[in-house]
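Retro notes
What went well: the complex prediction finally ran end to end.
Inputs used:
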Amino acid sequence: MKTRITLYAEDGRVLTDGKHFGRIVHLDTNVDATAWHEISEEEYSEIQDRTISEEI
Amino acid sequence: MTVAEQILRAKDDYDQVHEAGRQKGHLEGREAYRSDFWAEFQQNGNCHNYDSAFRGDFFNDAIYNPTYPIIASDTYGASYMYMNNKRLTDTKVTISVPGLGSGMVFYQTSRLKRIPTLEISDKTTFSNWFAGCSALEEMNVVGTIAQNEFNVRWSTGLSKESLTGIIRALSDTTTGLTVTLSLAAVKNAFTDQEWDSLLSTKTNWTVSLI
């Protein structure tokens, strides 16, 4: 049985796989962690603002 | 009591009875009108397309009183249903969205606290359904979440029962999908042990907390 991996973002950072975001990410046991990387809070905020303005 | 006093008293009694009757009639009339409105609006329960039905700020808690469950079963039938309504606090009835394609259903409903029951199916897609739902506290999810983009990260006050319901609704058979929850809501609702125990039931999902 595979063990679930949990990723924790450093303070002031956010984890992303390009589509989803998290400060704590409990990974599906069938995926690996390489798709996830850290970005800064500022980058995260910019992405969120841009997404909202595109939707509206 | 003089005859004049008796006449005055009778008039007072008449006025009181008349006013009571007027108020009763007014309330009954208003209730009948409201009932007729919702029966017509929901096509006596046969309406299945609620695209943009409660969008914007027209409906508030006082005048929003659906008679029937809201079953938006058409493709895209729930799109923008409550989008940008910043007055409603409660959907009051079951919301059923079994079909494909509906997006932004509760988008920016910033005062919405309660969705008593949200019925979904494994085909239901969740594109930006809950973006900006910052007041949401109670949402009972019934059915199976088997698509990507179920994201309630804005709902920092979501209850333990609601969060538990979301995790339990995650499909047992899909892989490679992600659900996003509010880190603050999870921390407020669960001990670490409780959370780990709940998560262990759905190791086929990525659960992202932010």
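What we learned: Chain A has a mean pLDDT of 90.
What to try next: split runs per interface for comparison.
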